[in-house]
Amino acid sequence: MNHDSNNTQSQKLTGAEIAKHNSRESCWVVIHGRAYDVTEFLPEHPGGPKIILKYAGKDATEEYEPIHPPDTLDKYLDKSKHLGEVDMKTVEKEVKEEDPEEKERQERIKRMPILEQCYNLMDFEAVAKNVMKKTAWAYYSSGADDEITMRENHSAFHKIWFRPRILQDVEHIDLSTTMLGTKVDIPFYVTATALGKLGNPEGEVILTRGARRHNVIQMIPTLASCSFDEIIDAAEPGQVQWLQLYVNKNRDITKRIVQHAERRGCKGLFITVDAPQLGRREKDMRSKFSDVGSSVQSTSGEDVDRSQGAARAISSFIDPSLSWKDIPWFLGITKMPIILKGVQRVEDVLRAVEVGVHGVVLSNHGGRQLDFARSGVEVLAEVMPALRERGWEKKIEIYVDGGVRRATDIIKALCLGAKGVGIGRPFLYAMSAYGLPGVDRAMNLLKQEMEMNMRLIGCANVEELNPTLVDTRGLSMHNTTVPADTLGLGVYDPLAGPKEKAKL
Amino acid sequence: MNHDSNNTQSQKLTGAEIAKHNSRESCWVVIHGRAYDVTEFLPEHPGGPKIILKYAGKDATEEYEPIHPPDTLDKYLDKSKHLGEVDMKTVEKEVKEEDPEEKERQERIKRMPILEQCYNLMDFEAVAKNVMKKTAWAYYSSGADDEITMRENHSAFHKIWFRPRILQDVEHIDLSTTMLGTKVDIPFYVTATALGKLGNPEGEVILTRGARRHNVIQMIPTLASCSFDEIIDAAEPGQVQWLQLYVNKNRDITKRIVQHAERRGCKGLFITVDAPQLGRREKDMRSKFSDVGSSVQSTSGEDVDRSQGAARAISSFIDPSLSWKDIPWFLGITKMPIILKGVQRVEDVLRAVEVGVHGVVLSNHGGRQLDFARSGVEVLAEVMPALRERGWEKKIEIYVDGGVRRATDIIKALCLGAKGVGIGRPFLYAMSAYGLPGVDRAMNLLKQEMEMNMRLIGCANVEELNPTLVDTRGLSMHNTTVPADTLGLGVYDPLAGPKEKAKL
Amino acid sequence: MNHDSNNTQSQKLTGAEIAKHNSRESCWVVIHGRAYDVTEFLPEHPGGPKIILKYAGKDATEEYEPIHPPDTLDKYLDKSKHLGEVDMKTVEKEVKEEDPEEKERQERIKRMPILEQCYNLMDFEAVAKNVMKKTAWAYYSSGADDEITMRENHSAFHKIWFRPRILQDVEHIDLSTTMLGTKVDIPFYVTATALGKLGNPEGEVILTRGARRHNVIQMIPTLASCSFDEIIDAAEPGQVQWLQLYVNKNRDITKRIVQHAERRGCKGLFITVDAPQLGRREKDMRSKFSDVGSSVQSTSGEDVDRSQGAARAISSFIDPSLSWKDIPWFLGITKMPIILKGVQRVEDVLRAVEVGVHGVVLSNHGGRQLDFARSGVEVLAEVMPALRERGWEKKIEIYVDGGVRRATDIIKALCLGAKGVGIGRPFLYAMSAYGLPGVDRAMNLLKQEMEMNMRLIGCANVEELNPTLVDTRGLSMHNTTVPADTLGLGVYDPLAGPKEKAKL
Amino acid sequence: MNHDSNNTQSQKLTGAEIAKHNSRESCWVVIHGRAYDVTEFLPEHPGGPKIILKYAGKDATEEYEPIHPPDTLDKYLDKSKHLGEVDMKTVEKEVKEEDPEEKERQERIKRMPILEQCYNLMDFEAVAKNVMKKTAWAYYSSGADDEITMRENHSAFHKIWFRPRILQDVEHIDLSTTMLGTKVDIPFYVTATALGKLGNPEGEVILTRGARRHNVIQMIPTLASCSFDEIIDAAEPGQVQWLQLYVNKNRDITKRIVQHAERRGCKGLFITVDAPQLGRREKDMRSKFSDVGSSVQSTSGEDVDRSQGAARAISSFIDPSLSWKDIPWFLGITKMPIILKGVQRVEDVLRAVEVGVHGVVLSNHGGRQLDFARSGVEVLAEVMPALRERGWEKKIEIYVDGGVRRATDIIKALCLGAKGVGIGRPFLYAMSAYGLPGVDRAMNLLKQEMEMNMRLIGCANVEELNPTLVDTRGLSMHNTTVPADTLGLGVYDPLAGPKEKAKL
């Protein structure tokens, strides 16, 4: 059968026809009612060929959808491989086995707390854990190795305590500040996180709308589920967005992306520098694992399953040779301010000033890259004195992300000298559980918390926040406790309280 | 129908009549057998209109009672809105659904430990948790945000250890001291806590009687369930009381309150400075939440439930613009010693000395306001050296509250330089569980503990307590532990003890 | 009826007769088959009258036995109150209700691990907890207040780590040392602990025999269940014992006790200085509590139950006015070396040197007196440098007790400069669970452990132990961790391991 | 019956004949189908006579096999005691009682995760725990005393955090380094661990093959289950191995072993210096305990069971008098580089340099010897500055072992100055659970992890690793937390999340 180009297709393809191309030798898949020949593309697929072959000759839409922006096929698959429309009535629906886990999830969704029951950002996380698909939860919530940095990010804020001022006039609280010249209503931004459609079918545009409502900035991720233009288009006039960039080995592509973003109005370029390779996240890997076909013990020691979770599937666009000497080139191709995202030690902040970038984000990628990287806020406490010592604290804007869940966390970071903080997962969870109303409420809660806590710390606006308001002596303590012995674990009586009367 | 003034009412109102006024447009409620038109008052109600509307056209007494002092309606609702007596026989009794939680609580009350089974202040807390209404427990026991400061208040005492002296003649122990010139039998006072009737129908007057028995001072809260005069009247001649003050935006009201208190014999004015806005306490908010009418998912992201627990309902009387420049005015309107309650850093203690107040309470409001505020006793350990360095330690009396549960806690605070400590929740719990006998026993236990521990530390009276008797090196460590990895959590064998013989 | 003196009694008393004297007005009790009139003694009873009245007109032997040395009645009850023999056949046996707890205990005793299954001192503790009577376990195992010092005593050793030497010739290990001039085989002694018969009907003489087998010294407690002379008589010729002394207000009694001990061959006088009043131990108090007769709620707040556990029952023999100025008197009445037991800070050790005593025990009474007293070994680490600085380290012998469970604990104390360590509870538990074989095995295990660990630390004898062999940097950290928030407690996934294959 | 020498045996021995020799007086056993007279050997058996007597007159092969290298009988039992072949058909098979634990284990083996489900080294440990024989698991996994050092070894790495560099060209990662002159592909070696056949019937040769595949060095243990020559023979040409040596009291034997190893091509001699006596490992001892015959309570306090687990059974070959003065002798008998394995403090490293050895392993024997020995990596952080201060850091190679589970652990050790790390248990567990494929995958995982983490820390090869890349401030904190009181344990509400809707 001769296939016309997809614009002039005379007759729809049938399921039976497609089903024949179900092997590595000839591999067709159906996506959104159109067929594609991906045989030659198999070895190039960033997520590995295996996951495609699972759908060879079949409809792959459901698996494909949340991981790929809509312009993916146009961009990466030659038009000659676009085979045209499929008569979907002729495609056999896969009868899925009833999955008891999924059934339980549906039950949990029915009993899901109403939105007003979420009183803080952690609550969204708890709800999302219950109602998200297991694999989506695994992708969002996982961290590198033993997830020690991931948890430390939040714990680090717990090591910082307040030294509040009293008797300040705090009737009128002004939370606004500026970030890279943009005035925002509250000093956080929505940081870039990948694969938004895993949590909500609309994807990142929900965050765009939420950011608009509260006049905060959204950072657009390279690896969004929506296309870059969709996210830009979702913004209202005057709404500010930034671009997060993974640098492609092909600098022409990178240049195109950057200049396109600038043209479309992006006001900041955040170059990710903590991910020369995307991290291993074992929870994510475990969640993808399927028993099917692997009940026979492998004897080779080789990886038979190369799909390795969502994280690994998207990692081939990153240039591991990116280095300081590339920075001038970036400064040359755009007028957007350039910020290095993922700086993790004082020395590199100083160097960032020297090379002339406009900001850094002290970040460890949400604990998803190098385990035992220190939290951004701990690094911040080292960075600011070093900058002040040199009189450089105005030369560069310092941002922090990772582990922010409370307005007190934001205040702590600002007291220590940050210009603002990035928040990622909490908004993803709010979006995954409740959509836009969730994101809206999450931001509302932060605003309410922050207004109150500014009052309680005795500051009427963010300029008043300063290092004397915090006690950071606990921040450098990286210690584990000594494991208990049998006395403590098994022999000592637990302490008891009063005894109830015997039942009469 | 024409309503006479309530003094000349010819005929009682009927339930049917009142039931008609059940909307925002016309809202009547019955309280203690009398009807009130609160339609115009709705938007002014500190607790929000919603909670009133729930009782529109109905008897609201049970909900109203524990939260409002008896003189509230006279003070805040114009006489013209007092509609007069109601024929309560005609008011339909709401048939309450049987509440399984309440039933369980009644069962727990039956099996409640006898009072003699309470051996320390924590025991009252454990009992109260079991026998109090859930909402009352939530109001008393809740803290700000993650309740980290609330717990830290108690934990901080655990970081202070003793360096006891031996071979001192400790046959006769004298626990007495003076506070603001008043001789007391033991160096604690009953600090101000709101809404005493939530725990016991008689309210704060029980604490008045308990304080009398042990010759300690009671601080009268602005937000008591009993009226100020009721609490004053409950004192015996010569019994000393202090006033805790939330400063109203209307300084005339404030002045009236202060001067009234002075006239009625109060011996100290404690101005709360750590609460320009009342804290969010999520446990309290969660406890108020009701499913009724909210089973439909909200889609707006707006708060539909504004009642937000007892804490938020009482917060509108506080002036957030109160500042240092108001202090001279206070010094001018009263001869009572003035103490700032809620000071949280050295700098502000020094300033308090400079502005000429007579004392400060190092306090974080029982962990109910700013989470990650440090404990009062930790601040104390910084404050006293700074005062001594300037020779100012006699210029001001330093008090501490928060987390005191043991006589050793009191001793620690006094060793570090406090004049006395405030104790709040423990007496509330004792009162809630056992009434006056509970409060009496709680104070007795503290006295017994303190007498013994004074002996054991080698001091016959409180003047002998001094900093060499404590080791505070652990006090500044604000650290969390590193989260364990799978080895520790899942793989290492727990340590085992000897194995029992096999059953024969 | 006329009662003859007990030596010339013509006829035995009957149960019926005795049963008449069952009130505060006339109170007789039977002990070991003889009747006593304790009416007048009631108010003087150290344990309070209530516990005696429980047995008024009845046989009190079982309750009396483990708490009182055999010579108690002769010493403290006037001969005229000794009513003579009782015809025990006529005394009604109290039919005890079957106690389900006791039944379970008997079951546990049947399944008790054989002695060889105890591989360390903690094992005896675990077994004893299961097989001892609840009240006996409560008395031995309880500590003051929140039992924080009690647990800290053991934990403190966990903060000390080794810096072992390698390549030392450790073929022959010599564990012997001298204590107050006596050569012992291993550097621990059996410290004084009260009420041995609670654990074993033979009481403290079992420890005497165990100490003999291993050539270590036993310290005889003032409050032993066996009489002092019984314990002395149980020793073999040449076996060295010490006396622990609670100082009686009546110095004549004290002098008699001390000089009697010296005459009977005691080689050291350990004056307890950390117990001017015996501690409150709440577990002990709770264990004594009985529901009988107390189901009606008390309304007075007064203690209705004054029995307050075994600890409080034995506390009236101690002079709280004992002070430094009494020490010369002690030095004058005996030639035995005098050691202050319970010293808890450097200043007091220096003063002890100055007043000329021969030693101190750094101790907090096993955590049974002042909670938050620091561990003896922590104090030791401060004391020795202060002594060495003054060149006084040979002027006095320093002992430590509290929390020793492992030979490594002993080695740590000796490295830091202790002459030896006292061990109490572990031998009580070994004795309670297994009698003399238990004590013997416990000492054997310590010896085996110590020999091995001396090799591993690279020292052939105790003289080689020195401070460079330990790392004590963790010793001063008295910190509690920050309480976790909901993220840590409820939301973060626990780390997972590999998933088992689905069952086929 | 007259027994010929085993070479000229005319007739096979029968089971009946052998069964007669079942006592201490005459004790024969069958091993691998041949009979041996071990009557005279009984008292010399390193594992004690009891374990042999259990098999007197019977086939002991199953018990004997994993603990003894195949050349044991030839080496240690005089040829005259080799009684010759047995007609195994005549030997009664012991009908083993069905062991419910073993049955459960077999079930667990059936459901064992497939190899690809192991994503890190801890996973092998978790699987091995489930599928290994209890006694084998106990031998491998046990540590000294309270296993505090054993756990600390791993925890210590958790106290070291990274200070990663960004924007380094890390496209090409080179993990190779040299150890004692040998080029290896990744900086770890397989350290010596005893009794490999407990985990896998093939024993240590599996590790030989695994090491070959990844071009890393294997250290051959003195106490291997395979014979030294078997392990050497299993290596491929050019594959490098080292020898771990327990020094025998008989130096001729030691010399023979060392020179044989050198002749066979060993490239390093690792003299164990942390084990003058093999440690007590209570888990191991408990696992060996058998109820049989011990249901009667022992009354003597003596050890009736002397078998004491696998560890104690192999300990008699070690000379506890080995000392520094023996080192020159070793330097004289071999040209292999000499490394002291088990050095634990700075002073001894300096001395090692002075006596002229070529390296040290900072190690505490996997936590199996002295409990509270510090981790190797903690000692390393003290050692390197002391060496650098003297300019000695090139004079000696420093290795570390203990607790390494992640590539980040390896990187941390190298940053601090180690030349390489030894890994023991993880490979044993991989081998025990999955054989060679397990070992292979374990090494693969480490390589993948290390490559990624080198990128993330910003280093392209191991030479770039340096101390500025780590934050070790937490390393010296040896602290335990204060035990919680009843408030924390029993009274405070746990923090709650949002409430699910009531079921409708």
TrEMBL record, chains A, B, C, D:
<dbReference type="InterPro" id="IPR018506">
    <property type="entry name" value="Cyt_B5_heme-BS"/>
</dbReference>
<comment type="similarity">
    <text>In the C-terminal section; belongs to the FMN-dependent alpha-hydroxy acid dehydrogenase family.</text>
</comment>
<protein>
    <recommendedName>
        <fullName>L-lactate dehydrogenase (cytochrome)</fullName>
        <ecNumber>1.1.2.3</ecNumber>
    </recommendedName>
</protein>
<keyword id="KW-0285">Flavoprotein</keyword>
<comment type="subunit">
    <text>Homotetramer.</text>
</comment>
<comment type="similarity">
    <text>In the N-terminal section; belongs to the cytochrome b5 family.</text>
</comment>
<dbReference type="GO" id="GO:0004460">
    <property type="term" value="F:L-lactate dehydrogenase (cytochrome) activity"/>
</dbReference>
<keyword id="KW-0560">Oxidoreductase</keyword>
<feature type="compositionally biased region" description="Polar residues">
    <location>
        <begin position="292"/>
        <end position="301"/>
    </location>
</feature>
<dbReference type="Pfam" id="PF01070">
    <property type="entry name" value="FMN_dh"/>
</dbReference>
<keyword id="KW-0496">Mitochondrion</keyword>
<dbReference type="InterPro" id="IPR037458">
    <property type="entry name" value="L-MDH/L-LDH_FMN-bd"/>
</dbReference>
<keyword id="KW-0479">Metal-binding</keyword>
<dbReference type="GO" id="GO:0006089">
    <property type="term" value="P:lactate metabolic process"/>
</dbReference>
<dbReference type="Pfam" id="PF00173">
    <property type="entry name" value="Cyt-b5"/>
</dbReference>
<keyword id="KW-0408">Iron</keyword>
<dbReference type="InterPro" id="IPR036400">
    <property type="entry name" value="Cyt_B5-like_heme/steroid_sf"/>
</dbReference>
<feature type="domain" description="FMN hydroxy acid dehydrogenase">
    <location>
        <begin position="113"/>
        <end position="475"/>
    </location>
</feature>
<dbReference type="GO" id="GO:0046872">
    <property type="term" value="F:metal ion binding"/>
</dbReference>
<dbReference type="InterPro" id="IPR013785">
    <property type="entry name" value="Aldolase_TIM"/>
</dbReference>
<feature type="region of interest" description="Disordered">
    <location>
        <begin position="284"/>
        <end position="305"/>
    </location>
</feature>
<dbReference type="InterPro" id="IPR037396">
    <property type="entry name" value="FMN_HAD"/>
</dbReference>
<feature type="domain" description="Cytochrome b5 heme-binding">
    <location>
        <begin position="10"/>
        <end position="87"/>
    </location>
</feature>
<keyword id="KW-0349">Heme</keyword>
<dbReference type="GO" id="GO:0005758">
    <property type="term" value="C:mitochondrial intermembrane space"/>
</dbReference>
<dbReference type="GO" id="GO:0020037">
    <property type="term" value="F:heme binding"/>
</dbReference>
<keyword id="KW-0288">FMN</keyword>
<dbReference type="InterPro" id="IPR008259">
    <property type="entry name" value="FMN_hydac_DH_AS"/>
</dbReference>
<dbReference type="InterPro" id="IPR001199">
    <property type="entry name" value="Cyt_B5-like_heme/steroid-bd"/>
</dbReference>
<dbReference type="InterPro" id="IPR000262">
    <property type="entry name" value="FMN-dep_DH"/>
</dbReference>
